[in-house]
Amino acid sequence: MAGTVRSEQEFIAHVQSGGVVEAGDWMPEGYRRAVIRFIEMHANSEYMGALLERDWIARAPTLERRIAITSKVQDEVGHAQHLYCLLEDLGRPRAEVLSDLLEGRSRYNSFFHYPTASWADVGIIAWLSDAASIIAQKALLQTSYGPYRRILPKICWEEAFHVVHGREIMRTLLSGTRQQRDMAQEALTRWWPRLIYFHGPPTPAEKDADLTIWKLKGRPNEDMRQEFLRLYIPKIHKWGLQLPDPQLSFDEPSQRWRYTQADWEQVRLIGRGQGPASQAQLEIRRRAMEDNRWVAETLAPVPPAQEASR
């Protein structure tokens, strides 16, 4: 597309006809900002989501489970690595992105602002939140921004393995002792309300108009949430687990699930760093970055002027 599009009208015609946009192509400034916002939110969520499970590596009940969760955490951090590279190609330096994250100026999914309390949490997060992630990411597989489109299949493929990992943790707990089954139910009870708002608030079509025209958003939030509910509520019930929502019911005429609506203003505040574990998680990242700063400084390229003076 480079050199052929020089106006927003031509750009819209290009993406609407199935055209792909590359990092070096001309693009409207609003489009560039929207792509950066999408990818940065995704990258930060992968990066911070890994923290929920990292602490359970040493506490996994068996060596096999320890290896599996270590691999999962590595995958999540690897996803963030790929996505931060895409941001750098768009002129958003990684150091700037991480600084904004650690100082609370940028966001990540509200789901990841909570602490984990038991091994069952690891199962719920992998089984259900990664399933919700796949639904959101598959909705972007035909996004108009080429570099993002090309990395998403790899991320979805790896997330599918994470879902299996979580499902097997839950299967083991639910076939175990009464204490293990109670642990699984308690974890689901705590995390279910957060899963309901995983895909974000229902948004009117006009609010997403530009994103739709630019082919940056494939599906409305509520459609993705309904797909998640349609796929996973039967699985949860089949395993004998109870969902903690007295308003949860299936409406036959509309073929949609009804549920207790989230306090979306509270969800927004959580996403801005006011969640139960937001600051503790960010402080861990700050300490890790400070403790390992010497590595980055050692590996940093030497400026040409200093190289010449050696």
UniProtKB/TrEMBL annotation:
<dbReference type="InterPro" id="IPR007814">
    <property type="entry name" value="PaaA_PaaC"/>
</dbReference>
<dbReference type="InterPro" id="IPR011881">
    <property type="entry name" value="PaaA"/>
</dbReference>
<dbReference type="GO" id="GO:0005829">
    <property type="term" value="C:cytosol"/>
</dbReference>
<dbReference type="Pfam" id="PF05138">
    <property type="entry name" value="PaaA_PaaC"/>
</dbReference>
<dbReference type="InterPro" id="IPR052703">
    <property type="entry name" value="Aromatic_CoA_ox/epox"/>
</dbReference>
<dbReference type="InterPro" id="IPR012347">
    <property type="entry name" value="Ferritin-like"/>
</dbReference>
<dbReference type="GO" id="GO:0010124">
    <property type="term" value="P:phenylacetate catabolic process"/>
</dbReference>
<protein>
    <submittedName>
        <fullName>Ring-1,2-phenylacetyl-CoA epoxidase subunit PaaA</fullName>
    </submittedName>
</protein>
<dbReference type="InterPro" id="IPR009078">
    <property type="entry name" value="Ferritin-like_SF"/>
</dbReference>
<dbReference type="GO" id="GO:0097266">
    <property type="term" value="F:phenylacetyl-CoA 1,2-epoxidase activity"/>
</dbReference>
